[in-house]
Amino acid sequence: MNKQLFILVSLVLHAFSGQGQQSLPTDSIREGDIVFQSSISPQCKAIEAATHSPWTHCGMVLKQNGELYVLEAVEPVMYTPLESWAARSHNHIVVKRVKDNNVVNSGVIDKMKKAGEKYRGKHYDAFFEWSDERIYCSELVWKIYKETTGLEIGKLKPLGSFDLSSDIVKQTMAQRYGNKIPLQEKMIAPSVMFDSELLTTVYKN
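User: That's the sequence. What structure does it adopt?
Assistant: Structure tokens below.
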């Protein structure tokens, strides 16, 4: 299957079908917060099996026109209203924040927005390559944080270090890469960021 088809498929995989909106404590959610979701899509089920974690999608909170949005890598990289983003999560959402309150100040937020504009509109990377040509969800957040704060929210790991033994993962890898699985390709999974000791949980439902 070619890359263009995978890009189209990724749009469907990330358009979660959750119904209704959740009541979020928006007064306590800040710009720069990282939000995590769980999903039942086929791709996310493969990610869940490979990482042994339910957290398969993430984005970062930034304001647009005074309202809270999530900058996320779907197809393409875009801003999604926070309430809409939460509504499609099937009631699985966690908001995390850097523990050091001095890190994400107004100046850093401006830098984050500027960095985000470099990626906005880029295609989703269904092959999880560590380049800026296309980009996936956790890669987007990781790179913005690294560029604007110097922090690495989670350590990069080679693809081959994840659990690739389950049938759904094997099938996904075969469809995506054929016999040339890039086991040494460095990547960052949402679960690795979720478990970062640099973050603290500010909201979960």
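The mean pLDDT is 86.
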